[in-house]
Design a protein that fits this description.
The complex is a heterodimer of chains A (410) and B (244).
Chain A: H1 2-16, H2 19-57, E1 61-65, H3 77-81, H4 88-94, E2 100-108, E3 115-116, E4 127-131, H5 135-138, E5 143-146, H6 151-156, E6 160-163, H7 165-171, E7 181-184, E8 187-195, E9 200-201, E10 205-206, E11 210-214, H8 215-222, E12 229-234, H9 240-254, E13 266-268, H10 270-313, H11 315-323, H12 328-363, H13 373-399, H14 403-408
Parallel strand pairs in A: 4-11, 6-8
Antiparallel strand pairs in A: 1-12, 1-13, 2-4, 2-12, 3-7, 5-8, 6-11, 7-8, 9-10
Chain B: E1 8-19, E2 22-34, E3 39-43, H1 50-57, E4 65-70, E5 73-74, H2 80-90, E6 91-94, H3 106-117, H4 121-134, H5 150-162, E7 168-172, H6 180-195, E8 199-204, H7 207-211, E9 215-220, E10 223-228, H8 230-234
Parallel strand pairs in B: 3-8, 3-9, 6-7, 7-8
Antiparallel strand pairs in B: 1-2, 1-4, 4-5, 9-10
Classes of the chains: A alpha+beta (410), B alpha/beta (244).
């Protein structure tokens, strides 16, 4: 133990005596370690955020869509494009299923709309949906002011709109928006309610820039959409499985899917969304590890190079140490420890840099990030490991020197 | 290991080097003993084999033939590690060029042999301080070699050689890099060490230095050509010649 401590303090003092060179040598290692920590922090941050967002969406609901919500790799978009649209009639047919509590049939305008008043206008990025009163339950909208859409609004075809917090803030700053008028394209709507602020989805996209109008009014103002999304709330979280089975069976029948064929629609539960996110995260992780491995390889070769230089420069010192009674194994250990300590310092620097990037991402750019402990440990271990590995050859050269010859070198 | 036996015992030591296709006999049957407490010089011109002899006596090299015992240990067939341990315990080296580690303080330099002996930090520190005091460097312990004069550097080297309490202090041209006044100082220090009971072996090409030693051995072409009182061996030709 004493000898290990001695060797480590010996290594540290050598590195201190050559700070610039040590620093330059470490760049590769620093880059590798910081990449892992920064990328894993971002991925982890997104993962936590997705999990939290999904939990907010509630456990008892699921969505039916024509299009996949998230995918990567090769996607046969043609296959999805050939699918029949989801119609309102199909959605209505799900209402009577035993384990279905609410069916929210939603018409979405792809892209966004500009909402405006005589004084002000939003950017053209507001998501406008045509919906039913069920929208509120299936999407967990909490009413902040006023009220949500009612059956009467639909029956009478009232031009009313329920808006997200961003829309209310932009168009009616410092005012009570309820009862005020706004326009979507050329159609005037009366604001009946404002949602509580929901924050951002995945830290990027505001979830408060939306507006919901009665679905039949949506047709008049924005054109009748062919395809719809369905958000379904089961009778209880335990019944989600049964509700999905019933929904799938009903939709297959209505859409004439032959037995044995795949569903021609997508079902998303929170689990399936987080699953696809996790597989995306796995791809990011694999890519990061690739980059990291490369950086560690380059960094390791840099360390080997500098250690070979160091052995040459310190040939006399090695000879003296041997003359004074250092065994070959001690010389070997000294140089291996030195390169390991050097690389470990690089690892520490990389972790700090990566953590700084992660914190900056969170604090300055509001991108979610969370530094996972395992990424820190992994960075430190792999950085030190590369120092150890690439230090062996120079150290072995040092330990094989002949003391007499070594002391004679200039 | 017998207490009354010789500290160093060389018997028919040869050392051959292969240079190209030729075999060079750097040492050709060297035999002599060194008793505890002796102070002797090995003197000779360059190429006489004295460096080779010093390396063998210092356990940095092993002989091609003959028997060498240091403090009773036969070095024949010893592995590198065993030789390192033997150097660490039995030999204290003083080199012509001091061979101090430039980035380490005097104290750290003196501690080195004790690190390789595996002594705990505190004990190392105490012993190194004592060794530096004994060579008159109590106030220079935390200086680096480049902050010390030549004579002070050689004193640090001597302290480093003494700190492990070796059986033999082996010095290679210890005054070779010093001006004559400083060299004189170092020689006086050797005299003191001898008086304190240390065994000293100096390797030098300077007859004047050999003349100061009670005993000297003169090497020529790898053989001993003189062995006797330093003054007589230094003035080679007039001394009684004892051939091996």
């Amino acid at each position: 133990m004493t000898s290990l401590l001695d060797t480590v303090s010996m290594a540290l003092s050598t590195l201190r005596s050559n700070p610039l060179r040590s620093l330059l040598t470490l760049l590769g290692i620093v880059i590798g370690a910081s990449t892992v920590v920064a990328m894993m922090s971002l991925t982890e941050g997104f993962r936590l955020k997705v999990t939290k967002d999904l939990a907010q969406l509630g456990a008892g609901s699921f969505q039916v869509q024509k299009w996949p919500v998230m995918s990567f790799g090769h996607v046969d978009w043609q296959k999805y494009a050939r699918r029949k649209n989801l119609t309102r009639a199909q959605g209505e047919a799900l209402r009577d299923l035993p384990h279905v509590a609410h069916v929210s049939i939603e018409a979405w305008n792809p892209g966004g709309e500009k909402l405006w008043t005589r004084e002000r206008a939003t950017k053209p990025n507001v998501q406008v949906a045509g919906g039913l009163p069920d929208y509120q339950y299936a999407n967990y909208v909490v009413v902040g002011q006023g009220r949500f859409l009612s059956d009467v609004d639909l029956k009478l075809g009232r031009r009313v709109v329920f808006v997200g917090a961003d829309v209310a803030d932009l168009l009616f700053p410092g005012e009570d928006p309820v009862g005020k008028e706004l326009r979507i394209r050329s159609t005037p709507f009366t604001v009946i309610g404002v949602a509580e602020r929901m924050g951002t989805a995945l830290g990027i996209e505001s979830r408060d820039a939306f507006a919901v109008v009665p679905i039949n009014v949506f047709d008049q103002a924005l054109g009748r959409p062919k395809n719809h999304n369905l958000a379904i709330q089961a009778t209880s979280p335990e019944d989600v499985g049964k509700a999905i089975d019933e929904t799938v069976a009903t939709l297959r029948r209505l859409r004439n899917v032959k037995p044995g064929d795949d569903n021609d629609f997508e079902i998303f539960t929170n689990d399936s969304v987080s699953e696809s996110f996790n597989s995306l995260a796995a791809v990011v992780a694999a890519a990061t590890f690739g980059v990291c491995a490369l950086a560690l390889l380059v960094g390791g070769i840099g360390i080997m190079n500098i250690m070979l230089v160091s052995v040459t420069e310190r040939t006399r010192e090695i000879g003296v140490r041997m003359a004074l009674g250092a065994r070959r194994a001690r010389i070997l250990a000294q140089f291996v420890v030195e390169s390991t300590v050097l690389a470990a310092l690089g690892g520490v620097g990389g972790v700090l840099l990566g953590a700084a990037v992660a914190v900056a991402a969170r604090e300055i750019w509001q991108v979610p990030s969370s530094i996972p402990a395992w990424a820190v440990v992994l960075s430190l271990v792999s950085a030190s490991g590369s120092g150890l590995l690439f230090g062996i050859y120079p150290a072995a050269r040092a330990s094989r020197l002949d003391p007499v010859e070594a002391m004679r070198t200039e | 290991m017998t207490p009354d036996g010789a500290l160093l015992s060389l018997d028919g030591i040869t050392r051959l080097y292969q240079v190209g296709s030729e075999v060079v006999r750097a040492l050709d049957g060297v035999s002599f003993d060194v008793q505890r407490g002796e102070w002797l010089a090995v003197v000779g011109q360059s190429g006489s084999g004295k460096s080779t002899l010093m390396n063998i006596i210092g356990c940095l090299d092993t002989p091609s033939g003959g028997v060498y015992r240091v403090n009773g240990h036969d070095v024949r067939g010893l592995a590198d590690d065993a030789l390192a341990d033997l150097r660490n315990h039995e030999i204290g080296f003083v080199f012509q060029t001091f061979q101090l580690l430039p980035r380490s303080t005097a104290l750290a330099n003196v501690e080195l042999p004790l690190i390789y002996r595996g002594l705990p930090r505190r004990e190392r520190r105490l012993r190194a301080e004592a060794a530096l005091r004994s060579v008159g460097l109590a106030d220079r312990m935390h200086h680096r070699p480049n902050e010390l004069s030549g004579g002070q550097r050689q004193r640090v080297a001597i302290a480093r050689a003494l700190v492990g309490e070796p059986s033999l202090l082996l010095a290679d041209e210890p005054t070779g890099n010093l001006d004559s006044a400083t060299g004189e100082e170092i020689i006086r220090l050797f005299g003191e060490l001898h008086a304190r009971g240390h065994t000293l072996l100096l390797v030098t090409h300077e007859p004047r230095l050999a003349a100061r030693c009670p005993r000297a051995i003169r090497l020529m072409d790898g053989r001993i050509v003189a062995d006797g009182p330093g003054r007589e061996v230094a003035a080679f030709g007039t001394a009684p010649v004892v051939t091996a």
